[in-house]
Known about the structure:
The chain is α+β, with helices and mostly antiparallel strands and 56 residues long. The protein has helices at 12-27, 47-50; strands at residues 2-7, 35-40. The chain has two helices and two strands.
Amino acid sequence: MTVFVLFGATGDLAARMAPPVSWTLANEGLLPQNRIPVGGGRGDVSHEDSMPTCTN
């Protein structure tokens, strides 16, 4: 199992760059199948509100 930790997950750069990059890596088979994404940030965002930005 691999844990992918994203610091600054509530920021604009994370929302624009992390999902496309992780999707591309997963699509090319470069990410392990058993992975858990974990994000943290200073923004006031609930778990439910952050889910639409997590497409992978």
